[in-house]
Structure formats: structure tokens, C-alpha cells
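pls read this protein.

:::
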Amino acid sequence: MPFFRDLSKPQPLEFHAEMLLGVQRPHNGSLQRRHTMKEAKDMKNRLGIFRRRNESPGANPSGKLDKVLKSLKPTPEEALKWGDSLEKLLLHKYGLAAFRAFLRTEFSEENLEFWLACEEFKKIKSQSKMVSKAKKIFAEYIAIQSCKEVNLDSYTREHTKENLQNITRSCFDLAQKRIYGLMEKDSYPRFLRSDLYLDIINQKKVSSPL
């Protein structure tokens, strides 16, 4: 009986390549057919540039690519630590990318995007840039019927709106805390039970063919 992969789920090697090359999957979790040839060509061109920049006389291009992919992929032991807390997961670059990929399959990526936007907002030093960014975050994630509206209670929404009258680095703290708690109690436990995470922690070394 032939073996068919479920193309709606990111496969381990494909996932590593997507991280390296910046390939974005659509929200339905599958690569649309009409873009397949274009994406394949783009990926080939990117790989060609990557190899030309990193090749030295006598070097093995595919070997260099394998090394880069391996450097991005965590060991099963590292990935197991993501199960300790959502914080540990989000602090790991690959863990963050894996969680984002999982949320995309659940159509709730906006929660993580909002949390990350708040983290970046708190790093802004210029007051004028802070004001501009705060208005953008509110319009995109908090305003009712916004394009990426996150699930907040009315009190938190109004409290955050009032904070925009006097914008500081802490004006989104309550809303960010609410969304973090939502991910921690809802999406995070499901991620730990997902095939994507289980594939990472159960990965085994495959011997190269002779």
C-alpha cells in the first residue's frame, strides 16, 4: 500500500527549510498549487545564492546546507524543555517558530503576533515612534472588528484604550498578560500534544546511505 504524507501539516525537514528560507505557509496549512512552481523556483534561486556565498574550492554545497539546517533544529533534549513552560518555548528561536506554525493551523496566530508586537513596543526609545506604534497595535489587534482582533474582555479593552491617552511602555501590559494567559491555558497545551512538537522531540538520527 503506497504511503501518502499529509501535506496540510509542516513536515520536519520542510519546516527547517522554511525557517531558513523564509517561506510562509498560507492559513489553510497547505501550499497552494498555483504557487508551487513559482515557490520552487524562488527556493532554488535562494539556495543557489546561499551556496555560492558559502562555497569554497572543493566544498560540498549540500553538506553546508545540512549543517545550517542542523544548527537551527533543536535536539530532543532541548525541545523537551519547552514543555516546562510557555516562557521557555517563546525564548527559544526555533520553539517560537514552531509554536507560530502550530497556531497558524488553528487560525489563532494573531495572539502570538500581538504578544510579540508588545515585546517589540517595550523596546522603543523614541516617544514619537512609541506613540505611532501604540496606535498601530491598538488598531490592528485590539479595536473591535480589527483585522487581527484578539480575544479580550471589555474591561481590558477599555483600560488599554484609556492608556493611549498617555502612552508609556506599560500601556499594553494588561492586554498582553491576558493574551499570554490565554495561550498558556489553551493553545500551549495543545501544541505539546501536536504532531509537530512530537516529531521534534522524537526525532532520530538517520544514517547517511553508503
